[in-house]
Amino acid sequence: MREGLAQRVLVFGMGLSLAVLGLEVMLRAVGLAQRLTQASLRPSSASCVVLCVGDSYTACPGVPREQTYPAHLERQLNADQPRRRFQVLNLGLNGQNSTSLKSELPANLKKFRPEVVVLLTGGANAWDFSGYRSFKKNTSIGAQVADWMGRIRVVKLARLVDIEFRGDRPSLQPRPATPPPPGRRFQSSPDTWTGHQALARMDYLEAERHFRLALAAIPDDPEAWDGLSMTCIETARHDEGIRASLEALRLAPTATKYYDHLARLYSMTHQRQKALDCYVSGLERGDDRLDAEEKVRVMQHLLSYADKTELARMADRLQAVAAPRPALQPLLARVQNPATERPRIQDWIVHDLEKTVEICRSAGVPVVLMNYPGDHPSGLSALYEQVARRLSVPFVDNKRSFDPLPEAEYFLPDGHCTEKGNAQVASNVKKRVLEVLGPAQGGHPAP
Question: Residue 308 pLDDT > 90, yes or no?
Answer without folding.
Answer: no
